[in-house]
Specification:
The structure is a homodimer. Chain A is an alpha+beta fold. Chain A has five helices and five strands; from the N terminus they run ββααβααββα. In chain A, a hairpin with a 5-residue loop joins β4 and β5. The two termini of chain A are about 30 Å apart. Chains A and B meet through β2, α1, α2, α4 and α5 of A and β2, α1, α2, α4 and α5 of B. Chain A binds a DNA duplex (20 and 20 nucleotides) through α4. Chains A, B: InterPro entries: HTH_HxlR, WH-like_DNA-bd_sf, WH_DNA-bd_sf. Chains A, B: Keywords: DNA-binding, Transcription, Transcription regulation.
Chain lengths: ~150, ~150
DNA sequence: CCGAATCCCATGTGATACTG
DNA sequence: CAGTATCACATGGGATTCGG
């Protein structure tokens, strides 16, 4: 897995301006974008990364800070995966009661730039998307693809 | 929903260099990043966007082009959602047999920049992540968080 | 306090068959 | 060709309980 290669060229038949055309030589993995999305696409990873972007947090602090009310189970699974990916560093202090601290690694911090780009795009197009939803829903009363 | 606001300031307690600190005034939606990830985080949307980045495609062309073998059902659901989001334009030609063409809207094309950023990050850190996986797996023989 | 174990349900996804 | 309908199954995720 993950042996994709990517190149960006000028649009050939693309409509407007300087839109990057994405080309893969290994269509099986669509240039590895899937790698990142598998990592950030779940329900909670981004929240953890965003919270840790502000500094070191303990388990309970993370749980309280994350909007929507993450369960212990999901927080555990999420930080485990992020740790395995090398995005989060986990430090255990053998005190009693136990204390565990989580922080972003350097690679984890580099991800916050991406998250910021996602947020910027999201904010910039929020209204357009909402309008598109309204229009679509008005034209399609019952069917469910929402 | 989605009334979040976001600001980027200089890192306060952040470790290293110019890492953006993400601040939300409405923690309930973590700056709207969730909006984009809900859209791109599913299994197929990115593939469709990447393929359409190269130009107009018909239903069957999309299905054949997408790696992993997407089912009719999932392709239908995926393009429906993208259409509802205003990222894809769907054009029906009332011929027989019927012909339907899909293409990215302007907003859809703007997304390809984000996808490219994700791909770049993924490629840049692929090896580091793989190494992290190996190290973690070696240290944790049996447990499953993979 | 941190987290593992278990139970249970909602959702996502695939396979197949059928229609305009 | 471009879907829709139905079923069957895997996974994600919440609630709760138990342990170090």
């Amino acid at each position: 897995m993950s042996a994709g290669h990517m190149a960006v060229t000028s649009p050939a038949a693309a409509p407007a301006a300087a839109v990057p055309v994405i080309v893969c030589d290994t269509p099986q993995d669509e240039c590895g974008v899937r790698d990142v999305l598998d990592r950030l696409g779940d329900k909670w990873s981004v929240y953890v990364v965003v919270e840790l972007a502000s500094g070191i947090r303990r388990f309970k602090e993370l749980q309280r800070a994350i909007p929507g009310g993450i369960s212990q189970r999901m927080l555990t699974l999420t930080v485990r995966r992020l740790e395995r990916d090398g995005l989060v560093k986990r430090t255990v202090y053998p005190t009693v009661p136990p204390q565990v601290e989580y922080e972003l690694t350097e690679m984890g911090h580099s991800l916050t730039h991406l998250v910021k780009a996602l947020a910027d795009w999201s904010i910039a197009h929020r209204r357009a998307i909402a309008a598109s939803h309204e229009a679509w829903d008005a034209a399609h009363p019952d069917p469910e693809a929402r």
